Sequence to fold (209 residues):
Amino acid sequence: MAIETYLIYLAAVAVFFATPPDTSQLLIISNSVRHGLKRSAYTIAGDLTANSLQMTGAAFGLAAIIATSASAFIWIKWLGVAYLVWIGVQLLLSKDQTDDVAAAESGQSFRLFRQGFVTSMANPFAVVFFGALFPQFIDPTLPVLPQLLILGVTYLIVDGAILLVWGWLGVRAATALRRFSFGLVNKICGMLMIGAAALLASKDFQPQR
Fold:
C-alpha cells in the first residue's frame, strides 16, 4: 500500500468521525459521566472488540451475505435498541445515589464491556460498511492480508482515540453535574442511553437486489 493511499484512508476515517456523537459515543459519554473515564475504558474495549469481529466478517465475505439478505439481521438491531432502552429506563427510574455508592460498585467491569460490545454488534450493517470501505484502499497487486491489518488497526486506533475524547468530555460534564445531584446524573445518563437507542433504531439499510 502506497503511503499516499494510506494518508487518504486516514483522512477518510477522520472525516467519518467528524460528526455529532453516534450510538457508541453516546454510550461512552453516559458511562463516563456515571463511572469515570477509567471505568468507561471497558466500554471502549467492548466496542473495539465488536468492531474487530465485524472487520473479520467483512474480510470473510459476510458483508455480501448481509447486503443481499439484510432482513435476516434486522432482529439484531432491534434487540440492541431494546437493550439500550432497558438500561436507560433503569437509570431514569433509579433512586438518588451518592458518589461513594457508585464508587463501591466493583463488579461493573464486565457489564460495561458488555454494553460496549452489544451496542456495537447491534449494528450488523457495520460489516457492510467495512466491506465497502477497505477494498477502496487495497492494492490488488500486493498481499491483501497485511493491508487489511493496517487498515483495520488504523481504524481501531482512530475510533478508540475519538471514544476517549468523548469520554473525557463526559467526565468534565460529570464534575459540573454532581454539584447539583447524583440523581440528576442518573437521569441524564438514562436520557443519553435512550437517545443512543433512537439513533440505532433510525439506522436503515436497503439490501441489494
In short: The chain is about 75% helix and 0% strand. Residues 98-106 have pLDDT under 50 and may be disordered.
